[in-house]
Amino acid sequence: MNISELSKLSGLNSPTIRYYEQIKLLPKPLRLANGYRKYSKNDLQQLLLIKQAQQVGFTLEEIKLMMPSSVDRWDHDKLINTLNEKVKDIIQMQKLLATNKKNLLTLIDSIQNKPNDMTCTENAQRLMDIYLVEPEKDNIDGQA
Question: What is the mean pLDDT of residues 20-46?
Fold first, then answer.
């Protein structure tokens, strides 16, 4: 298949595919007599695997380190450890996102339910005083 067919099947554009070749994430394809690239089913599978790995949070560098040149060279234990580490990262990110969501909802509630006798400007200042507390001088200098 040519690059446009590979692009269509993988959902990745041609410049991205060429970039993956350039950084050696995808092996160099065979070249036809006319200079066009000829890709295999294995190339498509590798691109789909790269795309899926990115969707779950792996960087291209992490994918490059994890992905062998062929499936029969995969280090099973290393792969499992890498995947388990990514799961831990996702759990930490979920906790952070949940905290951020809670904080934003609290702030929204504080803005929408301001005291009736308070202007929006006064409420904004009140909320700044509550939520934007300056760190203590000692903590900024690294002393506690």
Answer: 91
